[in-house]
Specification:
Strand 1 and strand 2 form a beta hairpin. A 6-stranded antiparallel β-barrel has the order 1-2-3-6-5-4. It is mainly beta. The protein is elongated. About 5% of the residues lie in helices and about 55% in strands.
Amino acid sequence: MRAGALIHIIDILKVESIPDDGYNSSVRNEVPLYQGMRASIKYDGFSEGESINQQSNGQLITFRIWYRKEITEDCIVVFNGCKYNVIGIEIIGRNRELFLKTSKVNG
């Protein structure tokens, strides 16, 4: 992967559940894992006739980044102020790249 292909800036947050005070509940905490990471993106599930503005409102995006072993499916990607849950990870090569398949968080 060429470094010039990575033109978008994303943040990766790790979701941690911290047990609460004994009432069988937990607190969901989002801890920054990587900030200012470079990525290329692919909008999934669109036809060729749609404009980039229509695609940016999409629900499914695949992010392509350099391999990081700490990134798992319980991470969140922040891109352009929107949060995306990681729903799948594909490792490319011998731990060289990651394809993060994500869906947009409503709200």
